[in-house]
Specification:
By secondary structure, this protein is of the alpha+beta class. It contains three helices and twelve strands, in the order βαβαβββββββαβββ. The longest helix has 12 residues.
């Protein structure tokens, strides 16, 4: 039996990263406000674990995005399929990523996708042309590398 999974990415600002990647991938930014309100009312979580984002209560150290076509728990808005969770960590990024996301726009859509991602806050590192293919290496707002194919 296969396992359910989510990708967890350490970062400095989970809400900024989640907003960027939701827009970049055209994913849904999860809104955990209803869950947080219930947990606060039950005394299960304190205000020190929370912040406010766009007028809604949010986890201070966590934010997530999910594929818009995947199932999700309506009581918590937590995705049950393709999901990326961003968690705040105190230490800064050091060195090269051990793994990264590849975004597939196709050869005809690559330039427009790169331009759109730059407008969202990504930067181009380099364009790669090899016998096996071509792609653009970019960095997200926290300087994590990813590729646009």
């Amino acid at each position: 039996m296969s396992l359910h999974w989510k990708l967890v990415i350490d970062c400095a600002d989970p809400h900024r990263q989640a907003s960027f990647w939701a827009a970049a991938l055209e994913y849904t930014l999860e809104d955990h406000g209803a869950l947080i309100t219930r947990l606060l009312a039950a005394g299960a979580v304190g205000p020190e674990a929370l912040t406010e984002v766009d007028g809604h209560p949010a986890w201070r150290a966590l934010a997530a995005v999910r594929h818009p076509e995947d199932r999700f728990d309506p009581a918590s808005d937590t995705g049950l399929g393709r999901r990326i969770l961003f968690q705040a960590v105190p230490e800064p990024k050091q060195g090269k990523n051990r793994f990264h996301l590849d975004v597939h726009a196709g050869p005809a859509g690559r330039a427009a996708t790169v331009t759109r991602l730059e407008a969202l806050g990504a930067t181009v590192v380099r364009h790669v042309e090899e016998p096996g293919g071509s792609w653009t290496v970019m960095r997200d707002p926290e300087r994590n590398d990813f590729c646009v194919h």
